Amino acid sequence: MGLIEITDDNFETEVINSDLPVLIDFWAVWCGPCKMIAPIVEELATEYDGKAKIGKLDVDSNQQTSIKYGVRSIPTLLLFKDGELKETIIGAV
To answer: What domains appear along the chain, each with residue ranges and CATH number?
Structure first.
């Protein structure tokens, strides 16, 4: 499966209706700290393949989902399980 692209259009299918836990990296191309954590997010996608979905959501192209979940600074990581938001991590950690 690897790293998946999450969009406003596929959010419900890929995240809310997922049988697996889903970690989403909210990012933007101009965000320096987002670029710093990108290799870690990609590594997680490989490490947890088949156990969890790891995805990236471009906040500039997908504002609806970003607003819905109150993402005001990036990078922000949201963890969903059984269609519910379980954890929020803000900033490059």
So the answer is: 3-90 (3.40.30.10)
Question: Which positions are annotated as active-site residues?
Answer: 31, 34
Please state the pTM of the whole predicted model.
Answer: 0.94
Eight-state DSSP code of residue 93: -
DSSP letter, residue 49:
T
Q: Tell me the percentage of the chain whose pLDDT exceeds 70.
A: 98
Closest CA to 38 of 22, 27, 50, 49: 27
pLDDT tens track for 48-87? 999 999 999 999 999 999 999 999 999 999 999 999 999 9
Residue with tokens 């995805």: 55
Judge contact between 79 and 93, C-beta under 8 A.
Answer: no
Which residue is listed with tokens 């156990």? 51
Phi-psi region of 50 (alpha: psi -120 to 50; beta: other; left: phi over 0): left
